[in-house]
Every structure is written in structure tokens, then in C-alpha cells.
Design goal:
The protein is α+β, with helices and mostly antiparallel strands. The protein has three helices and eight strands. It has a six-stranded antiparallel β-sheet with strand order 3-4-6-7-8-5, with helices on one face. A two-stranded parallel sheet has the order 1-2. A hairpin with a 3-residue loop joins β6 and β7. It starts with 12 loop residues before the first helix and ends in a 17-residue tail after the last strand. 23% of the residues are buried.
Length: 216
């Protein structure tokens, strides 16, 4: 079995729990019709959290990647898959990988709205890059994205469970993936599609990533 491609450290459980909450709360705050007491309290709590976390965060927010990375930099979290699980700025999704094909589902929340009730086109580009690279990493041949063409066929709705599928081809130097996003009841009419090319990288040439520091 091919070894999965990973690069970085697993996120903390707190990091994952906070990401989902922050994403959902951002949507709720955006839906308010007027200033609200809970939002005012949230702002105060976030200001306090910012001050407390800033005091204990690494002095240098650059990642500890590479043989000469400074010890006072931050830990680099694994970006090979499931970025949305720990970063609220990225979408969450499910994916099932079966060799050169992959499929899954995604529901876009209010935080990713562009036109009224519609997913922002830039978010869809981010989504395709995430799921395609997740597919590449799970089958063990991945590398940097060199091009990503996103085609918008129909408006992509918020709040609705959607399905996606990916097909990939690999030659000696390049990976080509083709993906499409559809409604479950209308799979023959894609909402949007993407063609992405990436370098077929060499795992042995990856820079070393420092492990998480153990704190007392």
C-alpha cells in the first residue's frame, strides 16, 4: 500500500474544536439584524483571548520548517488534508479516496457567502485545491499546485449538502486532476468544475518539519 503523503504536525484537539465554533459563530454574527448583547460579550471575550494568547504565542510567527528553522518560531500544522478541520477560513468536507478516483460531500456555511445565498467563487477555488491535494496526498504522490482552472457553470448554494468527484492522472513529472461539484439530485448538471495540475514531488526532498515543543 502506498504511504500517505503528510507534511507538518497534527493540530491540537482545542484547535479543531475552536475552528468549527469560530466558523459557525462568524455566520451567526453576520446574520444579526441589529447590535446584540451576546455579540458585545463575544467581542470582549475575543479581545481578552487575543491578549492572553498573544502573551504565550511564539515570538516569531514564521513556521519551524527547514533544517535551520529558529527554535522560537511556531509549529507548522499539516496542510496535506482536512485544513478546514483546524482553520475556520477553509471549508470542511468529507472525502473517500479509491485510487485514481475520489468523491465526497461538502456544505458551505454563511461564512463563505458571496452573492446572496451563493458561495463566493474564490472559496470554491480554495475548496477544489484542498480536496484535490487531499486526494493526491492520500494516494502518496503529491506536490505544489502549478495551475488551477475553475469554471463556474451554475450558482453554488449555501447550506445545501453537495457532492464532488475527482479523477487524476500522473506522468513522470506532473499530476492532472479533474473535479466537479454537483447537487445530489442533479449530478448531470455540475455547479462548477476544476482542472488542476501539480508537480509530482519527491517525498525525500521535503524540508524537515520540527515537532511540537513539549511544554511543562
Amino acid at each position: 500500500m502506498t504511504e500517505r503523503w503528510t507534511f507538518g504536525v497534527e493540530p491540537l484537539t482545542q484547535t479543531q474544536e475552536a475552528a468549527g465554533l469560530l466558523r459557525r459563530v462568524a455566520g451567526l454574527v453576520a446574520a444579526m439584524e441589529a447590535d446584540a448583547g451576546p455579540v458585545e460579550q463575544l467581542i470582549a471575550d475575543l479581545r481578552a483571548a487575543h491578549e492572553s494568547l498573544e502573551a504565550i504565542a511564539p515570538a516569531d510567527m514564521g513556521p519551524r520548517v527547514g533544517a535551520d528553522a529558529a527554535a522560537d518560531r511556531r509549529v507548522y500544522l499539516d496542510h496535506s488534508r482536512d485544513i478546514g478541520a483546524y482553520n475556520p477560513a477553509f471549508p470542511e468536507y468529507t472525502i473517500d479516496v479509491n485510487g485514481s478516483r475520489a468523491s465526497g460531500s461538502v456544505t458551505f456555511p454563511l461564512a463563505f457567502e458571496g452573492p446572496p445565498g451563493i458561495v463566493h467563487g474564490g472559496v470554491l477555488g480554495t475548496f477544489f485545491d484542498c480536496v484535490i491535494q487531499h486526494h493526491n496526498c492520500d494516494v502518496g504522490v503529491a506536490g505544489k499546485t502549478t495551475s488551477l482552472l475553475v469554471e463556474y457553470h451554475r450558482p453554488t448554494p449555501l447550506f445545501e449538502p453537495l457532492l464532488f468527484e475527482i479523477d487524476r492522472e500522473v506522468d513522470d513529472a506532473r499530476i492532472t486532476s479533474r473535479a466537479r461539484l454537483v447537487r445530489g439530485d442533479r449530478p448531470e448538471k455540475p455547479l462548477c468544475s476544476a482542472t488542476m495540475q501539480a508537480v509530482a514531488g519527491d517525498r525525500a526532498r521535503l524540508s524537515p518539519v520540527s515537532p511540537r515543543r513539549i511544554t511543562p
